[in-house]
Structures are given as structure tokens and as C-alpha cells.
Amino acid sequence: MAIEEFGIKENVVGRSLKELEKYGTEGTGYFGKVLMSSGERPVLGSKVLIDLTSPHLILICGKRGYGKSFSMAVLLEEMARLPLSIRQRISVIAIDTAGIFWSIKVPNKENVQELAEWDLKPQGTEISVLVPRGRLEFYKSKGLPVDGAFTIKASELESEEWLALFRMNWNQAEGVLLSRIVEEVREKLGTFYGIEDLITAVKQDPEAEKVAKSALVNKLLFALRWGLIDKEGTKIKDIVKPGKITVIDVSAYRQTIGMEGTKDIIVALLGKKLFEERMLYRKEEEIKLVKGEKRESVMPIVWMFIDEAHMFMPKDEDNIALKVLLEWVRVGRQPGLSLVLATQRPEKLHPDAISQCDLFISHRMTSQPDIAAVSALRPSYMHQGFDKYYSEMPKSQGYALIIDDNTEKIWMIKVRPRFSWDAGVTASAFLT
Ligand SMILES: Nc1ncnc2c1ncn2[C@@H]1O[C@H](COP(=O)(O)OP(=O)(O)O)[C@@H](O)[C@H]1O
Ligand SMILES: [Mg+2]
């Protein structure tokens, strides 16, 4: 919304009129420019800024290769450039399913020309990239700029989560055995045990059948090699740091059979802990406010970016991360939890993730089922169908339709070029 009466020339999305009056453009990020006219040579107009200070549910859609991950990278670059006073209240976590966001660190030398046309320059951005511990050496050997490793604490996994990890269920003998072993070991060892302890317990189990036992031991040995789960686990406060952007690379096990469940577990546990901690701190903040003190606490508000969100929040399947993420979607804004979800398959995404979003950003879409899925959004201030918007959108990458519930306005924009190098185009070379 261009608010000339407040002396603001840019357009701000995600911020209500009241907030604009109070805060102006402070705490917004430069996302792109308004598309004035499409056609052969699209004409761009004034800047579009996006609010990064209040909690939001942002959904980024679009067919493959049209700029979803790119737009996420632009938002991450902007989060890193917020004024320090604001940045210190925010912590950003990006779940990287394709292993591409590390390149936000590297200035975009190949795109100097396009950046110059936007009056911008190549720049690196300070982010911290964490990979599962078992994959750290691999990443380092490839020369990727990784900052550290993370692990999950074994005792934090409930039996339900162990089952999800191996994609097992209660109907299988191994599944039943696994749940029983987890409970037994927990009772015996408390909160300090590892996969080795589970293996020993399975081997010593007097009741289970031999076949189920050896099948389960094999699975656990496999998991041991992943190097993801250990006795200690990375502390949440080492991941969620005020003013920091942390990329959690979950791409490592993506194509390995038997390991598909790992990325789900990582998101589920992280999402659960962040939710619980923010709920607690929110209370502390409220109490301070009641006492007339400043609303501050050690736990920053959190933005979680999830690329390829349909993997974690599927519509017709179950996923261990789904329940947690639905909590974020439904009530996360109250404790200060924002989500930025990207998907090329809105049709496969849980409908709540679509209906609850307050900022909808869509790159080009052509598949009718996907367009039909987002059409559920169609707000009263939208005067033409989605099909019409998509047909008017220039066919090259980076253009997007924005539907902003905060201002009840609709925009057609071009997302700005990245300051950083785009690994999306070459990531496969590193992963093979
Ligand atoms: N705003 C943009 N400006 C310039 N090029 C873009 C823009 N958005 C996307 N692209 C180009 O399109 C390619 C694919 O974008 P990407 O974000 O990886 O697609 P996806 O939607 O599949 O995540 C990028 O590698 C980049 O070359
Ligand atoms: Mg992508």
C-alpha cells in the first residue's frame, strides 16, 4: 500500500495501516518492484517492501523453476540486513531440503549487470549452515562452507517418532518391539542413552522373535551410521540465536532409501521445541509488560523457512512434522512464530497452510489442480480469478502475484535479484 499521506513512497505489504503509521518502513525488507505493464518488455515501478517484524504465515507457490527458492533467499538476505535493534529480537531458521541456501554466503559475481540495473551490488550474507553430524566430513570434503554439525538427542524421540524415523508402524512386529524397547531403555537409563543402548536392549530382549530382532538391529545400526542421533543432542539455544540466520541442511538423506524419515524428524522436533519454548517465554514477556517493564526475553521470536513444504505438510498422508507445523499455522502468531512455506504443489499441501496464510506470493502456475487449490483463498477484494492473473504474468522467472491480507491488496511484482550467488542451478553437481 503506497501511503503518501505518511510520506512513504514505497509500497509495503504485510503491514496494517496502523502499523505503517506507527513504524513507517522500518523493519521491512526490499522484496521487489511493482510491475507496471507486462508484455514483451515489462515495465517496473516503485519498490515493494515486506514486513519482517510481525508474525506472518507466508506461502510461496509457483511451478518448478520460477523462483520460489530464489524469493526465499531474497527474504533471508533482507532478514540479515534488518537494523540491529530489530534483528536481535529475531531468530531465523531455514530448512533446506535441496542443499542450496549455503550460497547466500557468497556474493553474486555473475549477476553484477542485473544487480546494477536495480542499483544493487553483489554481497555475501552472514548465515550459519548446519548439517547432520554424520555428513559433516562429506560436506567439508566438497569444499562447501559449512559452519557446524547438529545432532538430535535420542531421549527426546518418543516411540511414535522412532517409528516415523524408520517409516514403521504398529502393525509390524519390529514396530511393536521398537516401541517397547524405547520405553524400557528410557525407564532404565533416563534421558541419557544412545542408539547403542537400544541395540543392546533389542539383542537381550527375551520375548521377541529372532527375525524381528535382527531386522530392527539392522535398522538401528543403519541409523547409527547417519550420525544424526546421539546421547547429547544439539541444544536449541545453540541453534536459535538472536539476530542469527541458521540454515539446517536436511538434503543429505533425501534420496537414500530408509532415510527419508530423517528430515521429517528434524523439522518435527525443532518445530515442537521452538513452539514450547516460545509459549513459555511469551508468558514471561507478558508478565514484564504487565509490570510496566520492557517486553523482552532471552528467547527471540522465530521465523522458520521451509522449502518444499508439501513434503512436511502433506494433504492426504501423515507426516510426523505435520501436527507440529499445523500448530504453528493455527496459533503460532500469538507466541511470535512465523512461517514461510514454499511449494510447487499447493494441491498436495495441507489446506490449512493455504487458508491461514496472510501473505500469499505466487510465481507462475499452470497446473489446474494447483490453481484450484489456491483458489480457495480467493478473498473478497480479489476482483478476477487466479487464471486471469497467471495469464497476465510475464512468462520469465521472478514475477509474482502477491495477495496481502493485511492491506487487502493485490500486487503483481518482480522479485529483486539476489545479492548472493544462486546455487539452485548447480546444486546437483555437489550432491552426486
Ligand atoms: N527474481 C528473480 N530474478 C532473476 N532470476 C530469477 C528470479 N527468480 C528466479 N530466477 C531464476 O530462476 C531459477 C529458478 O529459481 P528457483 O527459485 O530455484 O525455482 P523454484 O521455484 O523451483 O524454487 C533461478 O536459478 C534463477 O536463475
Ligand atoms: Mg526450489
Largest sheet composition = 13 strands, mixed
* Mean model confidence by pLDDT: 90
What is the overall number of helices?
16
Question: How many domains would you count in the coordinates?
Answer: 2
**Can you list the strand order of the major beta sheet?**
1-3-2-15-14-13-4-12-11-5-10-6-7
Gyration radius (Cα, Å) is 23 Å
CATH C-level class of the largest domain: Alpha Beta
Shape: globular
List all distinct small molecules, including ions and cofactors, that are bound in this structure.
adenosine-5'-diphosphate, magnesium ion
Give an account of the 3D structure.
With 432 residues, the protein is an alpha/beta fold. It has 2 domains: 4-144 and 236-431, Rossmann fold, CATH 3.40.50; 155-229, no CATH class. 36% of the residues lie in helices and 19% in strands. The chain is built from 16 helices and 15 strands. It has helices spanning 17-23, 68-80, 84-87, 112-117, 136-141, 159-165, 173-189, 195-204, 210-226, 236-239, 261-290, 322-331, 351-355, 368-375, 386-392, 427-431; strands spanning 11-13, 28-37, 43-51, 57-61, 90-96, 128-132, 148-150, 152-153, 229-230, 245-249, 301-306, 337-343, 359-362, 399-404, 409-415. The strands form 2 sheets. Strands 1-3-2-15-14-13-4-12-11-5-10-6-7 form a 13-stranded mixed sheet. A two-stranded parallel ribbon has the order 8-9. A hairpin with a 5-residue loop joins strand 2 (28-37) and strand 3 (43-51). Helix 7 (173-189) packs across helix 9 and helix 8 (195-204) packs antiparallel against helix 9. Magnesium ion binds at residues 68-69, 307.
